[in-house]
Amino acid sequence: MAEHPDLEPAEALRRIAFLLERSRAGTYRVKAFRGAAATVRATDAEELRQRAEVGSLTDLPGIGSATEAVIREALAGEVPAYLKSLEDKAAGPLTTGGEQVRAALRGDLHCHSDWSDGGSPIEEMVVTAMELGHDYLVLTDHSPRLKVANGLSVERLTKQLGVIEAVNEHLDGQFRLLKGIEVDILDDGELDQTPEMLGKLDVVVASVHSKLKMNAGPMTTRMVAAVSNPRVNVLGHCTGRLVEGERGTRDQSSFDAAAVFEACAAHDVAVEINSRPERRDPPDELMALALEAGCLFSIDSDAHAPGQLDFLAYGCERAQRLGVPVERIVNTWEVDRLLAWARP
Length: 344
Hints:
Layout: H1 9-22, H2 27-41, H3 45-54, H4 65-75, H5 81-89, H6 99-104, E1 107-108, H7 122-131, E2 136-139, H8 154-171, E3 176-184, H9 195-198, E4 203-207, H10 216-227, E5 234-235, H11 257-266, E6 270-274, H12 284-292, E7 297-300, H13 312-321, H14 335-342
Parallel strand pairs: 1-2, 2-3, 3-4, 4-5, 5-6, 6-7
Helix pairs in contact: 1-2, 1-4, 1-5, 10-11
């Protein structure tokens, strides 16, 4: 997206935010541009032009010197200089390799909105997914016990399902936002949401977020119990490791991977290839083990911001390099096949 003919100020600000998120820039900078985009969208176009002429754009909430410059340049019909510099840096894919797998993906089964610990509204995640060429996106905000991530209670999740239905009515079949959750796997292998609520969802991703240093035996029992639950479709970031990033590093959890992947294969649960650069989970040797066990896979972004939806490229590179067959990657399937698998 090197050229931007007739780019509106709000779209210029959105594109900058997307590129910053894609490059893993600091949250503060991203919020400045997304906040400015929201202000511009809420401001009458004529008022915006008048303010640009008299130099009062910064009187609007959330407009600072950097965002003011972007607005002025876009109003003048120019490609904003800051946007151009980011586009030049972002030229080309995030990584080389994996292009065949990426071209086959139809959607993403794991992302977060500002209902839990994501940074943007549901609608912004949807618009960006559509711009990236997805056919569908599963919204998987956190479950209630993960309080640090503002996990959703039954009441909040119920409200969110209503929002998803309204979004889909507005989209009128052009794209599907699917109802999901990233549900915590509790210490005993139970799931952190009621069976009734899980039964209302299209796709359930189950992940371990607590007691990651549990001994291998109990951790194996815990994970096998979770993937044996008929409500679970995807085992999320199975080792819990962190290999880089601002949160530091974290060793992978200890468990009998062969037993866990055997259970995944037996219960038709996909092993997530988590595309976040700081996770790269599972490690290559465990992906090979899951492949040998006959598992299905789901290549997911685990995006917490719209620009991070593009992280799928990292997971696709790993899948293609390790020889994961495209037909065993569930998010290469069209939406009706995906739903028939997830809720038989």
